[in-house]
Amino acid sequence: MNAIQTEGLTKFYGRSRGIIDLDLEVREGEFYGFIGPNGAGKSTTIRILMGLIHRTRGSAWILGRDISREKEQILSEIGYLPSEAVFYPDMRGRDLIRLSADLHRKDCRKASLELCERLQLDPSRRISELSFGNRKKLAVVCALQHDPRLCILDEPTGGLDPLMQKEFFEILKERNEKGMTVFLSSHILSEVQRFCSRAAIIREGRIIASGSVEELARTNAKRVSVRGSFDASGLPDVRDLQISDDTVSFLYSGDINLLLSQLGRQPVMDLTISEPDLEEVFLHYYTEGDEKQ
Fold first, then answer.
1. pTM
2. Would the CA dihedral through 52, 57, 63, 69 be positive or negative?
3. For site-directed labelling of 55, which of 49, 69, 148, 261 has its Cα 20 to 30 A away?
4. How many CB atoms lie within 10 A of CB 286?
């Protein structure tokens, strides 16, 4: 069974585009990445899946249930971490954690205590006294303490320092290994490349590529770094040109023989041709889309 499945999912805000004909399939037990810059449609997709806004057309199922007819059952089995956590400011953290557990009708005291210790969160403080990072930790506890089958995370690491980000992903990895599906929306590509097995890239409300992270990284583009007085201006299909001191670096998706011919006619001291990382692949997909318009 798929943890998330959508067919032709579309949302317009009046005449403004939200998402268009989104076909998405996340298998149960996956650690899945949803990649795109701000405004691409990531949060719109998640809010529809959570039942926070209504779709314009199309269909969506969570854990085999139709979001339009079985919202209550769906919400009982998922954890949700919004990009911005807003809580009642006069409540103490422990009261909010207990309220969240009561909504799920579960005794989560042991799990919440462990999560607070690992995230170094003091739940006795009032929410108004907490920094943005500590409010995000509080949201993490509320999202995970009831042991959900599916956790939906919208830009989850904002506000967390590097040590807490590391611990946060360790917690997610442990839960995922025990069977929890993770749906991670992010514009931080290193997070997706490091932790996700599959991913989809969204651009202007449409999915432009999806598959395993390894498959997404397999484009005909290569990262070329040349040390010496190399002029790349005569080469077609050059992107992301960077010049630093005596080194020229660029993303190349053209004829490799043409590249070698150009290299052979210029003074080259050193040469590296490598596979691009996911961030460079992302740039490749987005630049390619611009050229087709």
1. 0.80
2. positive
3. 148
4. 16
